[in-house]
Amino acid sequence: MSLKANASALSQGFKDLSLAWQQTRASWRDAKALEFEENYLAELPDLSTKVGLILSELDNLMRKAKADCE
Question: pTM for this structure?
C-alpha cells in the first residue's frame, strides 16, 4: 500500500470515527462521555491532519528517491 493510500485510509477512518461518535453521543450524554471526548477524541482532527501532511511529504521524498535511482 502506498503512502498516499495510507493517508487516504487514515482520512476515511477519521471520518468514520467522527460519524460513529456523533451517533454514540446522541445517546451517551453524561460526564464520562464528555471526558472521553476531551481526553481521546478532541486532538484527533489536528493529529490526523498532521499525519496526512507527513505521509504526503514522505510520499514525495520516496518518489524523488526512486527517480534519482533510475
Answer: 0.76
